[in-house]
Write a structure and sequence with these properties.
Blueprint lengths: L2 H5 L8 H30 L2 H27 L3 H24 L5 H18 L2 H10 L4 H29 L3 H18 L16 H17 L1 H30 L4 H25 L5 H15 L1 H5 L3 H12 L2 H14 L6 H17 L1 H34 L1 H4 L13
Helix pairs in contact: 2-3, 2-6, 2-7, 2-8, 3-5, 3-9, 3-16, 4-5, 4-6, 4-8, 7-11, 7-15, 9-16, 10-16, 10-17, 11-14, 11-15, 12-14, 12-15, 12-17
Length: about 425
């Protein structure tokens, strides 16, 4: 592929607009109803405890199905799975809207529909990303990842306030909006044309066959010392990032900060991520990935310094900007290298293994924040999280498999 082709807009790549439309509207469908799910659970159950356990159940369902979902994605045609994901989710949200509009939505029915959506999400969520490598090819994957992260930030920024506004107008409106988004995603996926993969030509049935593919995929992932190193670094980093978000929210609430100002922190973070995405799309093909990862982790460490000085609102905003700006480039370099080097037939299982492991790191962050904050204070907690990031910097700098990853045009020359 020539340099001129490399710089050509991704939207000129065959099938990319259809893929981007399907992936974007699936994300929009989730973003619109995400913020109102807990509100609806409380409204229907009348119990904060029930609403809390309901949220936990949804998370457990997503993680459990994601473990096997990667194998399912690798064994089936990606276009058909995208059609199934958008079609089933759209039908579930439309059903929920109709039941609410007719006064027939009980908490039990709501729970069944939401858990079904979480199961579909966990089982098929890796489909779109698995298809992306086929659409853009390994050499442009980092650029596509940069664009995705900016797009994700923009959708999440718009989705939450839109969902809340629709919910205020009519409680069923966010669910009908999600159904419409999923319907548009279905249309985009229908127009997607992907090459047939040899492993999907012959149907493979039986629990033993599925279990073999599942174990083989996870074994392949953890046999790669590069992937294991990347997961360890990302896991430590994500743990610190999740814990810091929890700590910042608790700090702002404890100091009586207005709820609107607290929500604006996420907006500022999203805007910074969007700006970072624009920069990342220009840099990701030109800088050595290993050195870039190390520099970004050092940048994030410096980004925590404002919170060491003070937990006041202005310092929180400074931290949000500094730590969010490099995130698209970090994702493009780490995810871009790992998944562009992963064979198409293992994309689903690799993503499931990587993301599930990182989610396990992050799942304990809230509890850690709640336990440590009263004991060591906000500034002490920030310093502790800075130490975690420094450890990830050291791990990356001392590991030649990470440190020596070249720029993306040369990824084909090194092993995963």
């Amino acid at each position: 592929m020539s340099e001129g082709t490399q710089r050509e807009s991704l939207f000129r790549v065959a099938n990319y607009p259809a893929w981007f439309g399907a992936d974007t509207f699936l994300l929009c469908g989730s973003a619109v109803h995400w913020i109102v799910i807990s509100l609806m659970a409380y409204e229907l159950s009348g119990s904060v405890t029930m609403a809390g356990w309901f949220s936990t159940a949804r998370g457990i369902m997503s993680v459990f199905t994601q473990v096997v979902g990667g194998t399912f994605v690798d064994r089936h045609d990606h276009r058909l799975l995208l059609l199934a994901q958008s079609g089933i989710c759209g039908a579930l949200w439309a059903t929920m809207g109709v039941l609410y509009a007719t006064g027939n939505l009980t908490f039990l029915r709501f729970m069944v529909l939401c858990l079904s959506s979480s199961a579909v999400f966990g089982l098929l969520d890796g489909t779109s990303n698995a298809a992306l490598i086929t659409v853009v090819g390994p050499r442009r994957y980092a650029q596509a990842e940069s664009l995705n992260q900016g797009r994700d930030a923009a959708v999440r920024m718009a989705g939450s306030p839109l969902g809340a506004t629709l919910y205020g107008i009519w409680n069923a409106a966010p669910f009908f909006a999600s159904a419409i988004c999923d319907a548009v995603a279905f249309v985009c996926a229908f127009s997607l044309r992907l090459p047939e993969r040899p492993e999907t030509r012959q149907a493979k049935a039986g629990i033993a066959s599925f279990a073999h593919d599942l174990v083989e995929g996870w074994r392949w992932v953890f046999a790669s010392r590069t992937i294991v190193s990347a997961v360890a670094i990302m896991g430590l980093f994500e743990f610190g990032a999740f814990a810091m978000r929890q700590a910042v929210n608790l700090q702002l609430v404890s100091t009586g900060t207005d709820a609107l100002l607290i929500s604006l922190v996420n907006v500022v973070s999203g805007v910074a991520t969007l700006v970072g995405s624009l920069v990342s799309s220009r840099l990701c093909d030109h800088i050595p990935a290993g050195r870039g990862i190390i520099v970004i982790l050092m940048w994030v460490t410096v980004g925590y310094v404002p919170l060491v000085i003070s937990g006041a609102y202005g310092y929180v905003i400074a931290n949000a900007v500094l730590t969010s700006l490099p995130m698209p480039l970090f994702g493009a370099l780490v995810n871009g290298f790992v998944f562009s080097k992963t064979p198409v037939e293992r994309q689903g299982r690799t993503r499931a293994a990587v993301m599930t492991t990182i989610m396990l790191f992050g799942s304990a962050s809230g509890a850690v924040a709640g336990e440590l904050l009263p004991r060591i204070g906000f500034q002490g907690f920030v310093i502790a999280m800075m130490v975690l990031v420094v450890v990830s910097v050291v791990l990356a700098a001392l590991n030649p498999r990470i440190r020596t990853i070249p720029a993306s045009p040369h990824w084909s020359e090194v092993e995963l």
